[in-house]
Design goal:
Layout (H helix, E strand, L loop, with lengths): L8 H7 L7 H6 L6 H8 L1 H9 L10 E6 L2 E6 L2 E2 L1 H5 L1 H8 L3 E6 L5 E5 H17 L7 E5 L4 H13 L2 E4 L6 H11 L3 E5 L1 E4 L2 E4 H9 L7 E5 L15 E3 H4 L12 E2 L3 E7 L7 E6 L1 H14 L8 E4 L6 H13 L3 E5 L10 H9 L3 E4 L1 H10 L2 H4 L8 E5 L5 H11 L6 E4 L33 E4 L10 E7 L9 E2 L3 H9 L6 E9 L5 E6 L3 E4 L2 E4 H9 L4 E11 L3 E10 L7 H14 L8 E4 L13 H8 L14 H14 L1
Parallel strand pairs: 4-17, 6-7, 6-8, 8-11, 11-12, 16-17, 16-18, 18-19, 19-20, 29-30
Antiparallel strand pairs: 1-2, 3-13, 4-5, 9-10, 14-15, 15-23, 21-22, 22-24, 24-25, 26-27, 28-29
Helix pairs in contact: 1-17, 3-4, 4-12, 7-8, 9-10, 12-13, 15-17, 21-22
The chain binds adenosine-5'-monophosphate-propyl ester.
The site of adenosine-5'-monophosphate-propyl ester (PRX) has 23 residues, from α13, β20, β24, β25 and β27.
Length: 654
């Protein structure tokens, strides 16, 4: 139940300029003593080692950290298996009967899986993978919806030492193919379909198209979604069925003892070029970070909590805060396959009430959608089981923050706004819910042991209140270890802008109280609904169309999605600028990359604003698209270009 009085957002904002952790929360919090920060700062290696000690090691490490900037090795010489941390440790401690997942499919099919069930399932998949010849170090690409079998396959790869790479099942055949090729995967594990918004998406068709160009792939292992689906795609020679390969396997499988620095997974994310980066994470450090941050940020209590992170395992949030962190903590989770508004706008709140969810983690873009759909949807459900809320993926606007607190958290749940990245592996800047006085819109301060600085253009440090480039200035266990197959790009992207410091690509400001406010990307990367997209990637997709001579893409502010792409296109001779062609180009981008990247608009223009050296001035395009006063144009080769553009844009708007 939420506060009964209907309050406006403005009233809520004036009531919640800050939020002090409630006394009853503090009393039960995993950490409520601020000395945790000073202890961790005094000796961050020992702090992280104290968390690593909670894991189950086959062999303890010799050295906590070997830091050869920018290459870190954590827990050097240690051996462990990531799946053991998430499964065997709990089953061996007598907690095999605890529910790991309450799964709910979009059509309403429910399954309950205990930790013992998950262990047995993971071993069966692991044995199945082995029977297909998958060995330690081989790459396996996963293309599946949010179903327990996805988590099982992730953990099965970890169990046998195969490097897994989950590709979000909304990506196009081309995006999937690029990733499979980049990692030279031996196997693809996919589902034939997925439920989304009342429809079945044909995932197998996507895989068939992608795999046609992937000679490294020996097999495609297909999990049937619910058994009821008939994929429109043909079976291929390389296809093998879950029922034949996995279902009759033994339910035990000896875990591979992995070196702490052995690769665990590759996850692709967009950078500033057209080619996504395969971010590499390793075993011991990643597990340590996932365990520690889940435990302290989400205050997890394995005996009593029901935790629900609404992310997809195809993104880093699902890796760290569905599979590895929460499962290493042995907590019970909710997993939901489908859309938040199917069949009705209250599906999430129905699930929270049904499973008595106590910790809930979602994205600002979702919160803004909930606000738009109407207060009545959460308000009609009993949400009193909730005790802690989280936010991730993009800056949360204060209006969404106070709405979340009031309508979902009943006015008394702390909110943890967590800033981090695919590259950081785990949460870096966040409140600790039993300690931090929060401010709507601020991610507050670095997690214990993490050091974040704001830097000026010249690399000097911003001291006290002020704005700058956000950099992390100490190594941390779950940091990326590189870009798959491209060390040069790793060094250049993250470590060259401010030598010796990890440059995150975000701008931030610090207020008088020392709280950090993330301002967003300062590079050619946009954040659409909490997902990263590169302007270059969308531009490459546009110019791949026969009608397009040149394209420039920018991210503009969007009420629900945070940002959304807009494309400016110069057509080739012989093509006419029609609304139909604009639609076709939007659809073309969605087909090339995935629905997420579909431009909000495609505007035709005879010219693009360029500097004299030929660089497109995206900043000016953004001014045009957001209807702002045009900024400094002195470096433009031909300032008259902008006038024409403004007219085109206004014509499109009207
Ligand atoms: O710009 C920041 C934004 O998301 C970027 C990282 O994207 P990705 O690697 O896809 O990971 C998303 C989930 C961790 C960051 O560079 N971002 C993430 N969390 C926040 C955020 N911006 C503001 N506040 C956040 N809490």
């Amino acid at each position: 139940m939420t506060d009964s009085s209907p309050k406006t957002i403005d009233t809520l904002l004036s009531e919640h300029r800050t939020f002090v952790p409630p006394a009853d929360f503090v009393a039960q919090a995993n950490v409520s003593d601020a000395s945790v920060y000073t202890t961790a700062d005094a000796d961050y290696e020992s702090w992280w080692a104290s968390w690593a000690e909670k894991l189950q090691w086959d062999k303890k490490w010799d050295t906590v950290l070997d830091w050869q900037l920018p290459y870190a090795k954590w827990f050097v010489g240690g051996k462990l298996n990531a799946s053991v941390q998430c499964l065997d440790r709990h089953v061996d401690a007598g907690n095999g009967g605890r529910i790991a997942f309450h799964f709910e499919g979009e059509p309403g099919d429910c399954r309950t899986l205990t930790y013992a069930d998950m262990l047995a399932g993971v071993c069966q998949v692991a044995n199945g993978l082995k029977s297909l010849g998958v060995e330690k170090g081989d790459r396996v690409t996963l293309y599946m919806p949010m179903v327990p079998e996805l988590a099982m396959t992730v953990l099965a790869c970890a169990r046998i030492g195969a490097i897994f790479s989950v590709v979000f099942a909304g990506f196009s055949p081309t995006s999937l193919k690029d990733r499979v090729q980049d990692q030279a995967a031996k196997l693809i594990v996919c589902a034939d379909g997925a439920w989304r918004g009342g429809k079945v998406l044909d995932l197998k068709k996507v895989v068939n198209e992608a795999v046609a160009d992937c000679p490294s792939v020996e097999n495609v292992l297909v999990w049937p979604r619910g058994g009821a689906l008939k994929s429109s795609a043909e079976d291929l020679d390389r296809d093998v069925k879950w029922a034949d390969v996995v279902s009759s396997q033994a339910t035990t499988c000896e875990p591979e003892s992995m070196d702490a620095e052995d690769p665990l997974f590759i996850l692709y994310t967009s950078g500033t070029t057209g080619k996504p980066k395969g971010i590499l994470h390793t075993t011991g450090g990643y597990m340590t970070g996932a365990l520690a941050t889940s435990n302290l940020v989400f205050d997890l209590k394995p005996e009593t909590d029901v935790y629900w992170c609404t992310a997809d395992i195809g993104w880093i949030t699902g890796h760290s805060y569905i599979v590895f962190g929460p499962m290493a903590n042995g907590v019970t989770q909710v997993m939901y396959e489908g859309a938040p508004n199917y069949p009705k706008f209250d599906r999430f709140w129905e699930l929270v009430a049904k499973y008595k969810v106590s910790v809930f983690y979602t994205a600002p873009t979702a919160i803004r959608a909930f606000m738009k759909w109407g207060d009545e949807h959460p308000d009609q459900h009993d949400l009193t089981s909730l005790r802690l809320l989280g936010s991730v993926g993009e800056p949360i606007n204060p209006e969404a923050w106070v709405w979340y607190l009031h309508h979902i958290g009943g006015g008394n749940c702390p909110i943890v706004d967590t800033w981090w990245q695919t590259e950081t592996g785990g949460i870096m800047i966040t409140p600790l819910p039993g300690i931090t006085t929060t401010v709507p819109g601020s991610a507050t301060t670095p997690f214990p042991g993490i050091e974040a600085k704001l830097l000026n253009e010249d690399g000097s440090e911003v001291i006290g209140a002020g704005g700058g480039y956000l950099a992390l200035t100490r190594p941390w266990p779950s940091m990326l270890r590189g870009i798959w197959g491209d060390n040069e790009r790793y060094e250049e992207t993250y470590w060259s802008r401010f030598p010796g410091k990890y440059f995150a690509g975000d701008g931030a400001k610090r207020d008088e109280d020392g709280n950090l406010w993330i301002l967003g990307r300062v590079d050619d990367v946009m954040n659409v609904s909490g997902h990263r997209l590169s302007t270059m990637e969308i531009e490459s997709a546009l110019v791949a169309h026969e009608a397009v001579a040149e394209a420039a893409v920018i991210g503009i502010a969007h009420e629900l999605k945070g940002q959304t792409p807009v494309g400016f296109v110069i057509l080739r001779n012989g093509y006419e600028a029609t609304p139909e062609l604009s639609e076709e180009l939007r659809a073309f981008v969605a087909k090339e990359i995935g629905g997420l990247a579909r431009p909000e608009k495609v505007i035709f223009t005879p010219e693009l604003p360029k500097t004299r050296s030929g660089k497109i001035m995206r900043r000016l395009l953004r001014d045009v698209a957001e209807g702002k006063a045009i900024g400094d144009v002195t470096t433009l080769a031909d300032p008259s270009v902008l006038q024409g553009l403004q007219q085109e844009y206004e014509a499109k708007e009207s």
